[in-house]
Amino acid sequence: MQPIIEIRSLVKQYPKSTIPAVSDVSFTVLKGEKFGIFGPNGAGKTTLISMMCGILQPLSGEVIYHVDGSALDPRSALRHIGYVPQDFAFYPELTARQNLVYFGKMYGIPNPELNKRMDNLLEKLGLSHVKDKKIMTFSGGMKRRINLAIGILNEPKILFLDEPTVGVDVQSKHAIIQLLEELNQNGTSILYTSHHLKEAEDFCDRIALIDKGRIIGLGTLNSLTEQHQVENLEELLIRLTGKTMRD
Amino acid sequence: MRKLLASIVKELQLLAHDKVGLLLLYLMPVVLVFIITVVQDSAFKLVNDNQLELLVTNADKGNLGDSLVGMLKRSGNFLIDEKNDLSEKKLQEEGLSGGKLASIYIPENFSEAIENNTGTITKLILTEFGVSADSASSSVRKETSLNIYFDPILQENFQYTLVTNLQTIVAGLENKVMLEKLFGEMGYDEIPEHIASRMTGEQTPVLAKPASLDGKQKLTPNSTQHNVPAWSIFAMFFMVVSLGGNLVKERLSGSFVRLMTIPPGFSFTLVSKMVVYLGVAVSQLFLLFCIGYLIFPYMGLPQLQLPDAVLQLVVVSVLSGMAAVSYAVLIGTYARSQEQANGFGAVSIVIFAAIGGIWVPTFVMPDYMQTVALFSPLHWCLEGYYVLFLKNGDWNALTSSIIFLSLFNVVCQILTFVKLKIQNYL
Question: What was the ipTM of the complex prediction?
Answer without folding.
Answer: 0.84
